[in-house]
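Re: [ENG-882] Designed sequences occasionally contain unexpected residues at chain ends

Forwarding the minimal case from QA. Structure tokens:
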């Protein structure tokens, strides 16, 4: 099994991404300032937000399990919705989101990926748009007071595009039964994280 993972570079990239996303980080209300410019600040902000990374991974797993057409839909619509609603959030101003609500995308997408639910293409479109709208709005609202919010949103949307493309491609390349099971297990972990976040928000 180890040799198979070493030969399958997309799968190795997916496992590394899930591992990085699972690393606990300290919660902070401050925006990330890398000193490299607003685009990199947006990239760093997303990179340090596991509650945003994990549902993107779960959507990539779900779309990849459903096939190439679904993967293409997710790769196209998720960054577009993220950017569009990021601009809306930036215009409407800062928004305080209860962690319970942030746990819902993880729980829903994680359960769908874990169950390997057979869904039509329009459902994948809807899920991608809903996730991009929700997370993009939250991200954009954080940059409402900043002068370079648009650049930060574009930077984060670019990383979202790369992540969803890598995850869905890795799942599409999974030809063995055990690799598909591993992808579904990753979905179940995401659902469990969402359940924990939901419980913490409602406590």
């Amino acid at each position: 099994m180890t040799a198979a993972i070493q030969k399958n570079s997309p799968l190795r990239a997916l496992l590394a991404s899930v591992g990085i996303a699972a690393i606990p980080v300290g919660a902070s209300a401050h925006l990330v300032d890398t000193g490299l410019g607003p685009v990199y600040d947006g990239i760093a902000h997303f990179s340090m937000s596991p509650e945003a990374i994990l549902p993107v991974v779960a959507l990539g797993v779900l779309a990849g399990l459903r096939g190439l057409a679904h993967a293409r839909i997710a790769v196209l619509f998720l960054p577009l919705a993220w950017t569009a609603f990021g601009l809306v959030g930036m215009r409407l101003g800062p928004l305080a989101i209860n962690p319970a609500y942030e746990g819902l995308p993880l729980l829903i997408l994680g359960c769908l990926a874990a169950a390997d639910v057979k869904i039509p293409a329009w459902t994948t479109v809807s899920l991608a748009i809903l996730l991009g709208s929700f997370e993009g709005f939250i991200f954009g609202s954080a940059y409402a007071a900043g002068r370079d919010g648009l650049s930060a949103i574009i930077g984060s949307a670019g990383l979202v595009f790369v992540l969803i493309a890598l995850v869905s491609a890795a799942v599409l390349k999974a030809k063995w039964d055990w690799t598909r099971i591993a992808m579904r297990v990753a979905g179940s972990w995401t659902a469990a994280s969402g359940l924990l976040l939901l419980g913490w928000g409602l406590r």
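QA comment: On inspection the terminal residues look reasonable. The two ends are 41 Å apart (CA to CA). Proposing we downgrade this to a documentation issue.
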